[in-house]
Amino acid sequence: xxxxxxxxxxxxxxxxxxxxxxxxxxxxxxxxxxxxxxxxxxxxxxxxxxxxxxxxxxxxxxxxxxxxxxxxxxxxxxxxxxxxxxxxxxxxxxxxxxxxxxxxxxxxxxxxxxxxxxxxxxxxxxxxxxxxxxxxxxxxxxxxxxxxxxxxxxxxxxxxxxxxxxxxxxxxxxxxxxxxxxxxxxxxxxxxxxxxxxxxxxxxxxxxxxxxxxxxxxxxxxxxxxxxxxxxxxxxxxxxxxxxxxxxxxxxxxxxxxxxxxxxxxxxxxxxxxxxxxxxxxxxxxxxxxxxxxxxxxxxxxxxxxxxxxxxxxxxxxxxxxxxxxxxxxxxxxxxxxxxxxxxxxxxxxxxxxxxxxxxxxxxxxxxxxxxxxxxxxxxxxxxxxxxxxxxxxxxxxxxxx
Length: 402
Prior knowledge:
With 402 residues, the chain is mainly α. The chain folds into two domains: 247 residues, Serine Threonine Protein Phosphatase 5, Tetratricopeptide repeat (Alpha Horseshoe), CATH 1.25.40; 126 residues, no CATH class. It has 21 helices and no strands. The longest helix has 52 residues. The protein is elongated. The N terminus is likely disordered.
Protein backbone atom coordinates (compact mmCIF):
# COMPACT_ATOMS: atom_id res chain seq x y z
CA UNK A 1 0.00 0.00 0.00
CA UNK A 2 2.81 2.41 0.89
CA UNK A 3 4.58 1.65 -2.41
CA UNK A 4 1.37 2.33 -4.36
CA UNK A 5 0.83 5.69 -2.62
CA UNK A 6 4.49 6.60 -3.22
CA UNK A 7 4.12 5.80 -6.93
CA UNK A 8 0.98 7.97 -7.24
CA UNK A 9 2.68 10.86 -5.44
CA UNK A 10 5.73 10.56 -7.68
CA UNK A 11 3.55 10.73 -10.82
CA UNK A 12 1.69 13.77 -9.49
CA UNK A 13 4.93 15.54 -8.57
CA UNK A 14 6.54 14.82 -11.92
CA UNK A 15 3.50 16.24 -13.76
CA UNK A 16 3.60 19.41 -11.66
CA UNK A 17 4.72 22.31 -13.89
CA UNK A 18 6.90 23.89 -11.20
CA UNK A 19 8.60 20.53 -10.54
CA UNK A 20 9.19 20.04 -14.27
CA UNK A 21 10.59 23.57 -14.55
CA UNK A 22 13.05 23.00 -11.69
CA UNK A 23 13.96 19.62 -13.15
CA UNK A 24 14.71 21.29 -16.51
CA UNK A 25 17.00 23.84 -14.85
CA UNK A 26 18.89 21.07 -13.03
CA UNK A 27 19.31 19.07 -16.24
CA UNK A 28 20.68 22.17 -17.99
CA UNK A 29 23.30 22.62 -15.30
CA UNK A 30 24.25 18.95 -15.67
CA UNK A 31 24.73 19.42 -19.42
CA UNK A 32 21.75 17.26 -20.37
CA UNK A 33 20.33 19.76 -22.82
CA UNK A 34 17.89 17.44 -24.67
CA UNK A 35 16.33 16.13 -21.44
CA UNK A 36 16.14 19.70 -20.11
CA UNK A 37 14.27 20.91 -23.21
CA UNK A 38 11.85 18.00 -22.98
CA UNK A 39 11.15 18.87 -19.33
CA UNK A 40 10.54 22.54 -20.23
CA UNK A 41 8.20 21.57 -23.09
CA UNK A 42 6.23 19.27 -20.82
CA UNK A 43 6.00 22.00 -18.19
CA UNK A 44 4.74 24.49 -20.81
CA UNK A 45 2.03 22.02 -21.89
CA UNK A 46 0.94 21.17 -18.34
CA UNK A 47 -2.07 23.50 -18.49
CA UNK A 48 -0.89 25.81 -15.73
CA UNK A 49 -2.40 29.31 -15.56
CA UNK A 50 0.64 30.72 -13.74
CA UNK A 51 1.72 33.36 -16.29
CA UNK A 52 5.02 34.12 -14.51
CA UNK A 53 6.01 30.45 -14.44
CA UNK A 54 5.16 30.08 -18.13
CA UNK A 55 7.27 33.14 -18.89
CA UNK A 56 10.24 31.68 -17.02
CA UNK A 57 9.88 28.31 -18.75
CA UNK A 58 9.88 29.98 -22.16
CA UNK A 59 12.82 32.21 -21.19
CA UNK A 60 14.92 29.15 -20.38
CA UNK A 61 13.97 27.56 -23.69
CA UNK A 62 14.88 30.79 -25.51
CA UNK A 63 18.25 30.93 -23.70
CA UNK A 64 19.02 27.46 -25.00
CA UNK A 65 18.17 28.59 -28.53
CA UNK A 66 20.51 31.57 -28.11
CA UNK A 67 23.36 29.30 -26.96
CA UNK A 68 22.73 27.13 -30.02
CA UNK A 69 23.04 30.28 -32.21
CA UNK A 70 19.47 29.88 -33.48
CA UNK A 71 18.59 33.53 -33.00
CA UNK A 72 15.34 33.58 -35.01
CA UNK A 73 13.84 30.81 -32.86
CA UNK A 74 15.21 32.49 -29.73
CA UNK A 75 13.48 35.74 -30.70
CA UNK A 76 10.19 33.89 -31.29
CA UNK A 77 10.30 32.17 -27.90
CA UNK A 78 11.40 35.33 -26.05
CA UNK A 79 8.37 37.04 -27.63
CA UNK A 80 6.09 34.36 -26.19
CA UNK A 81 7.67 34.72 -22.75
CA UNK A 82 7.23 38.51 -22.89
CA UNK A 83 3.50 38.09 -23.53
CA UNK A 84 3.11 35.92 -20.42
CA UNK A 85 5.06 38.40 -18.26
CA UNK A 86 2.90 41.22 -19.64
CA UNK A 87 -0.29 39.36 -18.69
CA UNK A 88 1.13 38.79 -15.20
CA UNK A 89 1.95 42.52 -14.88
CA UNK A 90 5.54 41.58 -13.93
CA UNK A 91 7.14 44.75 -15.30
CA UNK A 92 10.77 43.85 -14.57
CA UNK A 93 10.50 40.37 -16.15
CA UNK A 94 8.60 41.86 -19.11
CA UNK A 95 11.31 44.51 -19.60
CA UNK A 96 14.03 41.85 -19.46
CA UNK A 97 12.13 39.81 -22.08
CA UNK A 98 11.94 42.87 -24.34
CA UNK A 99 15.68 43.40 -23.93
CA UNK A 100 16.32 39.74 -24.79
CA UNK A 101 14.21 40.19 -27.92
CA UNK A 102 16.27 43.28 -28.74
CA UNK A 103 19.50 41.31 -28.30
CA UNK A 104 18.38 38.69 -30.82
CA UNK A 105 17.41 41.41 -33.29
CA UNK A 106 20.82 43.02 -32.81
CA UNK A 107 22.54 39.68 -33.38
CA UNK A 108 20.61 39.29 -36.64
CA UNK A 109 21.73 42.78 -37.73
CA UNK A 110 18.36 44.50 -37.21
CA UNK A 111 19.61 47.50 -35.27
CA UNK A 112 16.48 49.66 -35.70
CA UNK A 113 14.21 46.90 -34.37
CA UNK A 114 16.64 46.29 -31.50
CA UNK A 115 16.72 49.96 -30.49
CA UNK A 116 12.91 50.16 -30.64
CA UNK A 117 12.64 47.16 -28.32
CA UNK A 118 15.18 48.44 -25.79
CA UNK A 119 13.41 51.80 -25.74
CA UNK A 120 10.18 49.96 -24.91
CA UNK A 121 12.01 48.09 -22.15
CA UNK A 122 13.29 51.35 -20.66
CA UNK A 123 9.81 52.89 -20.72
CA UNK A 124 8.54 49.81 -18.92
CA UNK A 125 11.27 49.69 -16.25
CA UNK A 126 13.60 52.74 -16.38
CA UNK A 127 15.99 51.86 -13.54
CA UNK A 128 18.68 49.33 -12.46
CA UNK A 129 19.34 46.47 -12.86
CA UNK A 130 17.84 46.64 -16.34
CA UNK A 131 19.65 49.79 -17.47
CA UNK A 132 23.05 48.03 -17.52
CA UNK A 133 21.66 45.30 -19.78
CA UNK A 134 20.13 47.94 -22.05
CA UNK A 135 23.54 49.58 -22.57
CA UNK A 136 25.06 46.19 -23.42
CA UNK A 137 22.35 45.53 -26.02
CA UNK A 138 22.73 48.96 -27.64
CA UNK A 139 26.51 48.61 -27.77
CA UNK A 140 26.25 45.13 -29.30
CA UNK A 141 23.69 46.35 -31.86
CA UNK A 142 26.14 49.06 -32.96
CA UNK A 143 29.03 46.56 -33.12
CA UNK A 144 27.06 44.13 -35.29
CA UNK A 145 26.25 47.04 -37.63
CA UNK A 146 29.93 48.08 -37.70
CA UNK A 147 29.17 51.44 -36.08
CA UNK A 148 32.34 51.32 -34.01
CA UNK A 149 32.38 54.99 -32.93
CA UNK A 150 28.97 54.48 -31.31
CA UNK A 151 30.31 51.38 -29.53
CA UNK A 152 33.02 53.53 -27.93
CA UNK A 153 30.36 55.95 -26.68
CA UNK A 154 28.32 53.19 -25.01
CA UNK A 155 31.36 51.40 -23.52
CA UNK A 156 33.21 54.34 -22.00
CA UNK A 157 34.84 53.34 -18.67
CA UNK A 158 33.87 52.58 -16.00
CA UNK A 159 32.15 49.62 -17.63
CA UNK A 160 31.69 45.92 -16.94
CA UNK A 161 33.83 43.20 -18.50
CA UNK A 162 31.43 42.54 -21.36
CA UNK A 163 31.27 46.21 -22.38
CA UNK A 164 35.06 46.45 -22.18
CA UNK A 165 35.30 43.41 -24.47
CA UNK A 166 33.11 45.22 -27.00
CA UNK A 167 35.29 48.30 -26.58
CA UNK A 168 38.41 46.26 -27.30
CA UNK A 169 36.81 44.89 -30.46
CA UNK A 170 35.72 48.37 -31.61
CA UNK A 171 39.22 49.77 -31.00
CA UNK A 172 40.70 46.92 -33.03
CA UNK A 173 38.34 47.56 -35.97
CA UNK A 174 39.15 51.29 -35.78
CA UNK A 175 42.90 50.39 -35.83
CA UNK A 176 43.41 51.86 -32.37
CA UNK A 177 45.87 49.06 -31.66
CA UNK A 178 47.30 50.32 -28.37
CA UNK A 179 43.85 50.73 -26.82
CA UNK A 180 42.65 47.37 -28.17
CA UNK A 181 45.73 45.62 -26.74
CA UNK A 182 45.33 47.38 -23.38
CA UNK A 183 41.74 46.20 -22.92
CA UNK A 184 42.54 42.70 -24.22
CA UNK A 185 45.36 42.23 -21.70
CA UNK A 186 43.16 43.67 -18.95
CA UNK A 187 40.33 41.23 -19.69
CA UNK A 188 42.34 38.14 -20.54
CA UNK A 189 42.69 36.67 -17.01
CA UNK A 190 38.95 36.86 -16.24
CA UNK A 191 37.23 35.96 -19.54
CA UNK A 192 35.65 32.54 -20.09
CA UNK A 193 33.20 33.38 -22.89
CA UNK A 194 34.37 31.62 -26.06
CA UNK A 195 33.41 34.42 -28.43
CA UNK A 196 35.17 36.97 -26.24
CA UNK A 197 38.20 34.67 -26.02
CA UNK A 198 38.38 34.42 -29.81
CA UNK A 199 38.24 38.19 -30.25
CA UNK A 200 40.77 38.91 -27.49
CA UNK A 201 43.13 36.23 -28.84
CA UNK A 202 42.94 37.80 -32.31
CA UNK A 203 43.69 41.26 -30.88
CA UNK A 204 46.71 40.07 -28.90
CA UNK A 205 48.21 38.01 -31.71
CA UNK A 206 47.72 40.60 -34.44
CA UNK A 207 48.03 43.96 -32.68
CA UNK A 208 50.67 43.33 -30.02
CA UNK A 209 53.90 41.74 -31.30
CA UNK A 210 55.49 42.20 -27.88
CA UNK A 211 52.87 40.15 -26.04
CA UNK A 212 54.28 37.65 -23.58
CA UNK A 213 54.59 34.30 -25.41
CA UNK A 214 53.94 32.25 -22.28
CA UNK A 215 50.76 34.23 -21.67
CA UNK A 216 49.63 33.63 -25.23
CA UNK A 217 50.38 29.88 -24.98
CA UNK A 218 48.34 29.60 -21.80
CA UNK A 219 45.63 31.65 -23.39
CA UNK A 220 45.58 29.47 -26.50
CA UNK A 221 45.32 26.35 -24.32
CA UNK A 222 42.42 27.84 -22.37
CA UNK A 223 40.77 28.84 -25.63
CA UNK A 224 41.12 25.33 -27.07
CA UNK A 225 39.69 23.70 -23.93
CA UNK A 226 36.78 26.12 -23.96
CA UNK A 227 36.14 25.48 -27.65
CA UNK A 228 35.98 21.72 -27.11
CA UNK A 229 33.60 22.05 -24.17
CA UNK A 230 31.31 24.44 -26.03
CA UNK A 231 31.40 22.35 -29.21
CA UNK A 232 30.19 19.32 -27.26
CA UNK A 233 27.47 21.35 -25.54
CA UNK A 234 26.50 23.02 -28.83
CA UNK A 235 25.71 19.64 -30.40
CA UNK A 236 23.36 18.82 -27.52
CA UNK A 237 21.77 22.28 -27.70
CA UNK A 238 21.17 21.93 -31.43
CA UNK A 239 19.29 18.66 -30.85
CA UNK A 240 17.28 20.29 -28.05
CA UNK A 241 16.33 23.25 -30.25
CA UNK A 242 15.19 20.91 -33.03
CA UNK A 243 12.82 19.26 -30.53
CA UNK A 244 11.49 22.71 -29.59
CA UNK A 245 11.03 23.76 -33.24
CA UNK A 246 9.02 20.63 -33.91
CA UNK A 247 6.81 21.51 -30.94
CA UNK A 248 6.38 25.11 -32.15
CA UNK A 249 5.58 24.08 -35.73
CA UNK A 250 1.85 23.89 -36.60
CA UNK A 251 0.55 20.34 -36.67
CA UNK A 252 -0.35 19.13 -40.16
CA UNK A 253 -2.88 16.57 -38.98
CA UNK A 254 -5.85 17.66 -36.93
CA UNK A 255 -6.55 15.42 -33.97
CA UNK A 256 -9.90 13.53 -34.02
CA UNK A 257 -11.27 15.34 -30.97
CA UNK A 258 -10.59 18.66 -32.69
CA UNK A 259 -12.52 17.53 -35.76
CA UNK A 260 -15.46 16.49 -33.59
CA UNK A 261 -15.34 19.80 -31.75
CA UNK A 262 -15.32 21.74 -35.05
CA UNK A 263 -18.31 19.73 -36.34
CA UNK A 264 -20.26 20.35 -33.13
CA UNK A 265 -19.42 24.05 -33.24
CA UNK A 266 -20.40 24.25 -36.90
CA UNK A 267 -23.73 22.55 -36.25
CA UNK A 268 -24.34 24.84 -33.29
CA UNK A 269 -23.65 27.90 -35.44
CA UNK A 270 -26.11 26.67 -38.07
CA UNK A 271 -28.83 26.15 -35.43
CA UNK A 272 -28.10 29.55 -33.92
CA UNK A 273 -28.24 31.23 -37.35
CA UNK A 274 -31.58 29.52 -38.09
CA UNK A 275 -33.05 30.65 -34.76
CA UNK A 276 -31.81 34.22 -35.29
CA UNK A 277 -33.26 34.30 -38.82
CA UNK A 278 -36.58 32.98 -37.56
CA UNK A 279 -36.67 35.55 -34.77
CA UNK A 280 -35.80 38.38 -37.16
CA UNK A 281 -38.55 37.26 -39.54
CA UNK A 282 -41.06 37.19 -36.68
CA UNK A 283 -40.00 40.65 -35.50
CA UNK A 284 -40.19 41.99 -39.07
CA UNK A 285 -43.70 40.54 -39.47
CA UNK A 286 -44.82 42.02 -36.16
CA UNK A 287 -43.33 45.38 -37.11
CA UNK A 288 -45.11 45.34 -40.48
CA UNK A 289 -48.43 44.48 -38.83
CA UNK A 290 -47.89 47.21 -36.24
CA UNK A 291 -47.12 49.78 -38.93
CA UNK A 292 -50.21 48.77 -40.95
CA UNK A 293 -52.40 49.21 -37.87
CA UNK A 294 -50.83 52.58 -37.09
CA UNK A 295 -51.24 53.76 -40.69
CA UNK A 296 -54.91 52.78 -40.69
CA UNK A 297 -55.45 54.70 -37.44
CA UNK A 298 -53.53 57.67 -38.87
CA UNK A 299 -55.68 57.78 -41.99
CA UNK A 300 -58.87 57.58 -39.91
CA UNK A 301 -57.79 60.44 -37.63
CA UNK A 302 -56.72 62.60 -40.58
CA UNK A 303 -60.03 61.95 -42.36
CA UNK A 304 -61.96 62.81 -39.20
CA UNK A 305 -60.13 66.12 -38.76
CA UNK A 306 -60.46 67.01 -42.44
CA UNK A 307 -64.23 66.50 -42.27
CA UNK A 308 -64.81 68.29 -38.98
CA UNK A 309 -66.67 71.58 -39.30
CA UNK A 310 -64.60 73.54 -36.76
CA UNK A 311 -61.06 72.24 -36.67
CA UNK A 312 -59.97 75.02 -34.29
CA UNK A 313 -62.53 74.00 -31.70
CA UNK A 314 -61.87 70.29 -32.23
CA UNK A 315 -58.20 70.71 -31.34
CA UNK A 316 -58.62 73.55 -28.77
CA UNK A 317 -56.24 75.69 -30.83
CA UNK A 318 -56.00 78.65 -28.44
CA UNK A 319 -54.51 76.55 -25.61
CA UNK A 320 -51.21 75.08 -26.83
CA UNK A 321 -50.88 72.55 -24.00
CA UNK A 322 -54.41 71.24 -24.57
CA UNK A 323 -53.71 71.25 -28.29
CA UNK A 324 -50.59 69.08 -27.77
CA UNK A 325 -52.54 66.72 -25.53
CA UNK A 326 -55.18 66.23 -28.20
CA UNK A 327 -52.58 65.72 -30.93
CA UNK A 328 -50.59 63.21 -28.86
CA UNK A 329 -53.73 61.15 -28.20
CA UNK A 330 -54.65 61.05 -31.87
CA UNK A 331 -51.20 60.68 -33.46
CA UNK A 332 -49.04 58.60 -31.11
CA UNK A 333 -47.26 61.30 -29.05
CA UNK A 334 -46.72 63.32 -32.23
CA UNK A 335 -46.28 66.72 -30.55
CA UNK A 336 -43.97 65.33 -27.88
CA UNK A 337 -41.71 63.72 -30.53
CA UNK A 338 -41.47 66.98 -32.48
CA UNK A 339 -40.71 68.96 -29.32
CA UNK A 340 -37.90 66.52 -28.48
CA UNK A 341 -36.35 67.28 -31.88
CA UNK A 342 -36.10 70.98 -31.03
CA UNK A 343 -39.24 72.32 -32.74
CA UNK A 344 -41.00 75.32 -31.19
CA UNK A 345 -44.74 75.98 -30.80
CA UNK A 346 -45.20 77.48 -34.27
CA UNK A 347 -43.22 74.64 -35.90
CA UNK A 348 -45.42 72.02 -34.21
CA UNK A 349 -48.63 73.76 -35.29
CA UNK A 350 -47.40 73.87 -38.91
CA UNK A 351 -46.40 70.17 -38.76
CA UNK A 352 -49.88 69.19 -37.51
CA UNK A 353 -51.58 71.10 -40.32
CA UNK A 354 -49.22 69.63 -42.92
CA UNK A 355 -49.93 66.16 -41.53
CA UNK A 356 -53.66 66.70 -41.78
CA UNK A 357 -53.19 67.85 -45.35
CA UNK A 358 -54.53 71.41 -45.29
CA UNK A 359 -53.79 73.76 -48.19
CA UNK A 360 -51.58 76.85 -47.85
CA UNK A 361 -54.69 79.03 -47.66
CA UNK A 362 -56.31 76.89 -44.95
CA UNK A 363 -53.05 76.70 -43.02
CA UNK A 364 -52.67 80.50 -43.21
CA UNK A 365 -56.17 80.97 -41.82
CA UNK A 366 -55.44 78.66 -38.91
CA UNK A 367 -52.17 80.45 -38.10
CA UNK A 368 -53.50 83.97 -38.78
CA UNK A 369 -50.81 84.80 -41.35
CA UNK A 370 -50.52 85.36 -45.10
CA UNK A 371 -50.57 82.37 -47.52
CA UNK A 372 -47.27 83.59 -49.05
CA UNK A 373 -45.39 83.04 -45.81
CA UNK A 374 -46.62 79.46 -45.32
CA UNK A 375 -44.25 77.96 -47.91
CA UNK A 376 -41.26 79.65 -46.27
CA UNK A 377 -42.36 78.51 -42.79
CA UNK A 378 -42.78 74.93 -44.03
CA UNK A 379 -39.27 74.95 -45.55
CA UNK A 380 -37.74 76.28 -42.33
CA UNK A 381 -39.50 73.60 -40.29
CA UNK A 382 -38.48 70.88 -42.75
CA UNK A 383 -34.80 71.90 -42.46
CA UNK A 384 -35.01 71.55 -38.69
CA UNK A 385 -36.11 67.95 -39.23
CA UNK A 386 -33.35 67.33 -41.77
CA UNK A 387 -35.56 67.02 -44.87
CA UNK A 388 -36.68 69.21 -47.75
CA UNK A 389 -40.09 70.89 -47.97
CA UNK A 390 -41.35 68.27 -50.44
CA UNK A 391 -40.37 65.44 -48.07
CA UNK A 392 -41.92 67.00 -44.98
CA UNK A 393 -45.31 65.25 -45.11
CA UNK A 394 -43.74 61.78 -45.54
CA UNK A 395 -41.41 62.50 -42.62
CA UNK A 396 -44.34 63.58 -40.43
CA UNK A 397 -46.43 60.52 -41.34
CA UNK A 398 -43.57 58.20 -40.31
CA UNK A 399 -43.23 60.12 -37.05
CA UNK A 400 -46.95 59.65 -36.33
CA UNK A 401 -46.84 55.92 -37.16
CA UNK A 402 -43.72 54.84 -35.25
